[in-house]
Amino acid sequence: MEYGLIGAKLGHSYSKQIHEQICGYTYELKELSESELDPFMRERSFSGINVTIPYKQDVIPYLDHVDPEAAKIGAVNTVVNRNGKLYGYNTDFYGLKQMMEQEGFDPAGKKVLILGSGGTSRTVRAVCEALQARQILTVSRKKTSDPGMISYEELPAHADADCLINTTPIGMYPNMDAEPVDLSVFRDLRSVVDVIYNPLRTRLVLDAQSRGIRACGGLKMLIGQAVVAAGLFTGENIPESKGISAYRFVFNERSNIVLTGMPGAGKSTVGKMLAQKLDRTFIDTDEEIVRREGCSIPEIFSSRGEAAFRQMEVKTAQELLEKAHCVIATGGGFLLDPVCERAMKAYGTVFFLNRDPSGIRPTDDRPLADDPEKIAALYRQRLPRYQELADHTVPVEGEPSDVCAAIMQILEGE
To answer: Which residues of the chain form CATH 3.40.50.300?
Structure first.
């Protein structure tokens, strides 16, 4: 191959889309076992490659020259073949530093915990040192004599940490329900960074955000390092605008727009308008359940009860994890279940359509909202949770087209 990515497992990778957006060359994903790495590196039949878990340190012995910054870090994620000689770089350093600066994560004078002790962990340490963190501790599964490393069992003694950065694969697709640490341990935590980018928001990031902690995933880091790597591959100065365009493209392709709110708030009507305007697939979770079960929602409630219906919602949410580039209109109680919430927010931006209950018309096909008193009581009960779950709250006023326009305006500003 000419350009590409090597690693043990690459099913989660967005690198092909990113590099081909940035420079237009063909970029391949090549999974290698440990036994396949040696012949691949010795053959040198590539112009430029990126390197990911678990080979960021293993490739170093094959290189003729290692950039001083990469040598200091002890990890290489970019290799360029120049006339048969291999040059190694660490572009993750620049990608992470740029992302932290863009997202407002400032470790200067703060105590930082880095989860994981692999090649990416070394890069994160170097960035935090460059940004003048007060104290940096690496958290490893094993106890060591290194004063800069602690075990997971020792975390309660460091509950005063200001910043936590995850470099482990825990929480990566498809094992998205995992979380590397319990954030309730930390009393002073102000920021969380997860270098995982698939899903867009890991359970760790969602947990942090639910606690009011500033948090982000690793997509911008991936884009930033890819821009630098592409420049090394081609010898060209890649403009920042290319990275911005690549980020918007990947985020748009991989993310969903999720509409939540009361039954009768207009989610389906607005959702169909949005899907048409944005050329996305429209999905209504209630319609998905009706289609799959072969009967109406009132019939499900009557014959099997609300608890059974909620389990159908959970199953639907798990199935929708495989969907991307969609507008999803959810049932009134859909996101109230933690499993459904995580499934939708992992790849979605959630909009709460807030219609005053007096404007919601009772209908027989909504068992929990078939009279005005039920609607008012349900609204009072659910409103705090709707507001908590939403990335954006949109008042439902005027015509559905006005609500659609308000959502479009928010999306264009992101």
So the answer is: 255-413
* Pair of tokens at residue 350: 């959630």
The CATH code belonging to domain 94-217 is 3.40.50.720
Question: Can you tell me whether residue 215 is helix, strand or coil?
Answer: strand
Options 16, 30, 56, 220, the catalytic residue: 56
HSE toward the beta carbon, residue 24, CA cutoff 13 A: 1
CATH number of the domain at 255-413, please?
3.40.50.300
Q: Are 161 and 111 in contact (CB under 8 A)?
A: yes
What CATH number belongs to 3-89+223-245? 3.40.50.10860
> Which residues are 88's β-sheet partners?
66, 79
pLDDT confidence of residue 380:
94
Contact yes or no for 97/127 (Cβ under 8 A): yes
72, amino acid identity: K
How much is the pTM? 0.90
111 is catalytic: no
Grade residue 288 by pLDDT with cuts at 50, 70 and 90. very high
